[in-house]
Amino acid sequence: MFYTIGEVADMFQVNASLIRFWEKEFPIIKPKKNAKGNRLFRPEDIKNLQIIYHLVKEQGMTLKGAKKRIQNNKEGTQQNIEIINKLTAIKQKLLAIQEHL
C-alpha cells in the first residue's frame, strides 16, 4: 500500500512541505514517484517518518540530533515508540473503564 503526501501529512498533522523537507534532510525517507512525479510513501517510509516525528516534534530534538540518534540507534528508538503507543492505548482503555464505573 502506498500513501500520498497529503495522506502522510494528515497522519502526522503537519504540512506537506514539512514532509518534503524531512525527505530532503533524512536519507531514510525514500518515497517512490509515479509517472507524474507524485510521491508515494511506503509503510517503511511511514515508520521512518514516525521516528523523525517522535524525535523532532515530541522529544524536541534538533534535526542534527535526530539524524545522529537515527544513525546510532534507530531500532531502539522504534522500540520506544512502539512501547509509548502500547501504553497510550492501555491508558485510553483504562480511562474508558473509569468512565463506566
Brief account:
The chain contains 4 helices and 3 strands; from the N terminus they run βααββαα. It is mainly α and 101 residues long.
Report on the structure:
With 101 residues, the protein is mainly α. The protein has one domain (3-100): Multidrug-efflux Transporter Regulator, Chain: A, Domain 2, CATH 1.10.1660.10. The chain has four helices and three strands; from the N terminus they run E-H-H-E-E-H-H. The protein has helices at residues 5-12, 16-25, 43-58, 63-100, and strands at 3-4, 32-33, 39-41. The protein has a three-stranded antiparallel sheet. A hairpin with a 5-residue loop joins strand 2 and strand 3. The longest helix has 38 residues, at 63-100. The chain is globular. The model has no long low-confidence stretch (mean pLDDT 94).
